[in-house]
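Translate structure to sequence.
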């Protein structure tokens, strides 16, 4: 029951990496528990849901975001962990835009041509 509503919630949980998946797991577990009770079906639903969330959060989302923002997937995961550790919830929420901003600043920063500098100093 409520598959459409739960799928919308799970889809929106991608906006906030890691925390969104944990928060949306609560209604999924409660609805599965009320629908199936503590039967094998409940544990199947829970296991498959956890597997899909793990693959989505740790493989699919970093790969897709890396294509969009032109960052390596591991850098995205590190950014989420770093900014989440520094600023908590808001750090996780803004981790990918902050990592993209830092990369843009580093890319746009003027570089000194060491070869030309060595020629000028002669």
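Result:
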């Amino acid at each position: 029951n409520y598959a459409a509503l739960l799928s919308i919630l799970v889809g929106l949980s991608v906006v906030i990496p890691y925390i969104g998946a944990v928060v949306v797991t609560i209604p999924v577990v409660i609805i599965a528990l009320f629908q199936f009770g503590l039967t094998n079906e409940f544990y199947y639903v829970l296991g498959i849901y956890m597997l899909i969330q793990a693959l989505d959060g740790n493989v699919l989302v970093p790969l897709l975001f890396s294509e969009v923002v032109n960052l390596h997937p591991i850098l995205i995961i590190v950014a989420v962990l770093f900014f989440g550790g520094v600023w908590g919830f808001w750090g996780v929420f803004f981790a990918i835009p902050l990592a993209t901003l830092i990369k843009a600043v580093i890319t746009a920063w003027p570089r000194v041509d060491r070869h030309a500098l060595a020629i000028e100093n002669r």
